[in-house]
Known about the structure:
Blueprint: H1 3-15, H2 23-55, H3 61-85, H4 92-120, H5 126-146, H6 151-171, H7 175-230, H8 241-258, E1 262-270, H9 272-279, H10 281-300, E2 306-313, E3 316-322, H11 327-342, E4 345-347, E5 350-352, E6 355-363, H12 370-387, E7 392-394, H13 397-414, H14 418-421, E8 422-431, E9 437-448, E10 452-454, H15 456-465, H16 469-484, E11 492-497, H17 499-502, H18 505-518, E12 525-530, H19 531-536, H20 538-550, E13 554-560, H21 567-572, E14 577-580, H22 592-608, E15 611-614, H23 620-629, E16 633-634, E17 643-644, H24 648-661, H25 663-670
Parallel strand pairs: 6-7, 9-11, 11-12, 12-13, 13-14, 14-15, 15-16
Antiparallel strand pairs: 1-3, 1-6, 2-3, 4-5, 8-9, 8-16, 8-17, 9-10
Helix pairs in contact: 2-3, 2-4, 2-5, 3-4, 4-5, 4-6, 5-6, 5-7, 6-7, 9-10, 10-11, 13-15, 16-18
Amino acid sequence: xxxxxxxxxxxxxxxxxxxxxxxxxTRAQFDAFSKQIPLLYFILMSNTIAVAYTYVNVxxxxxxxxxxSVLTVAAALRTFWWLRQRHLVRSDADILRNLRATNWxxxxxxxxxxxxxxxxxxxxxxxxxxxxxxxxAVTVIGCIFSLMHLRSAALIVTLVVDVPYVLFFWAxxxxxxxxxxxxxxxxxxxxVTVLFIYYRDFADLVASRKSLLAxxxxxxALSDENFRLANLDSLxxxxxxxxxxxxxxxxxxxxxxxSVRVAVGIIDLDGFKPINDNYGHSVGxxxxxxxxxxxxxxxxxxxxxxxEFARLGGDEFGLxxxxxxxxxxxxxxxxxxxxxxxxxxQVDTAHTGLSCSIGFALFPQSATTAEALYECADYxxxxxxxxxxxxxVIFSSELEAEIRSRGVIENLLRTADFSTEIDLVxxxxxxxxxxxxxxxEALARWHSSRLGLVSPADFIPAAERIGLIRPLTQAxxxxxxxxxxxxxxxxxxxxxxxxxxxxSAEGILPLITIVExxxxxxxxxxxxxxxxxxxxxxxxxxxxxAALKATGCGISLDDFGTGYSSLSHVHRLPLDKLxxxxxxxxDINENPVSHKIIKSLTGLxxxxxxxxxxxxxxxxxxxxxxxxxxxxxxxxxxFAKPMPGDAIGGYLAKELQRLDGAxxxxxxxxx
Length: 671
């Protein structure tokens, strides 16, 4: 046989006597082995005591008393040591070291018991000698079975005990003992074969279990990742809406039985949509990510309350505040968030700014269910955006009364007869220099049979919420056009459209049809569109405005300066008039800032070659200041309050008399 082959066979044989180093296999071996090793020592001790007892009167004391005692005590100590190992948590290196130590300890222990047995043999009679042969055969079989999980140790015991055993008893020449030796050799060989098969199956089982655990770990990791993705907002990497409501439900379940406070907050970024429209969605996404990061830092550093933060969608974020917060805590949290959101955002080469409105609701004061608590927070946000933009609002009894009132208005509006309950009044729009009426703005008034006079600020939003705004707009436009046909040809009609009218194709087309059927020339009609409608969906609003312009109607941008439309919007729309909100007029003669704002806006109108209309003029001093600033048209109580349609004829007649009577003084004033 070549030397190389011999070396390889020797190496393979040597590997059989080594402890494997695979951590999973060695740990499995150790766990199984540690449960069986006490049984091995029990077999050794009981069989040893039995043989020693047989020879106690025929062999020397050192062989029947001292040596068996030493061997038994050693076995007992090892048994006690192994019993202790079953309750200890060991490292892979520790397990490998113990198995290797056990592997090598089988050599002296096996040799010691074998040598003792051979030393006793000569002192016995045939029966005693047969017992030694039986003792060694049975003990080695028991040891092999007990060591089956540590193949190397079992093989060492087989070689250390069986080889001397066979040689010793074969050398006696006694046929019975020779037969016993051969029989033991055959049985040991069969057991070693079984040992190899069992060990192979055991190793395969461990490997299979390892593979199964790896698959389970991979499956669990995939499940965890899917759960994470299902609860994560892909843009901001914040918890998403689903995760938010799960946290809210959990927090509510925890707080309810303990009667501790928990709060829900909803944050809306004010001024985000113009950033999207002006700079594009990629820039808008970056601003959203940065705003989310800032708010999260505030929430993480807000103690002692725990704040869960999530993105609900669009530019809206949610908060769940645990830890028994009170109103002061919520206002402090809202202030910190607002301060961070207001900091400038670097957008390419320019800087832009945002603010945020926040609505909070507190359990148990505001609501007794998680769903109702969220609805209360949503209404607080709605109130903040309408009346306290950029501020924090906590749900209160006053807001609860508003909700009830809003519900009553919505229910009554659903059953209202538009033709009898909702009237139109008209407010003059006057030429600033000549003081001649140039047109009238149509304004809706609802006289409810149950509520009395309901403000447009209440029922118009209600009609938008319940989907009645479009039929209401169409019904009122028909009636306004009928009234406008009775006016002189130079008098124009201004009519307001909502965001729902402007931002849907089904809202504009019926209005165009109504105008065409009315018989009133389209050039005498101005449709007023708010900044909110423009920013709600600029592209759709642009298309609707283009369609109205194509029919010959004029377009006015209403309430300019109070919303979040940008100058780029103004430049990109085919506007005829810009209406400056009344909030800048009230203190125009006392507040230099208001004066400068109106001056800037009138300059903007001059640059764009569109007319400038100012609302809310109530005094002669305001009118004179607006004239000096170059405003084109005036609207306000200084000239007239809104009036019914049948009063317009008388108003125009009185105006004509007034202006004719004051023609010369007026000319002097102008000069």
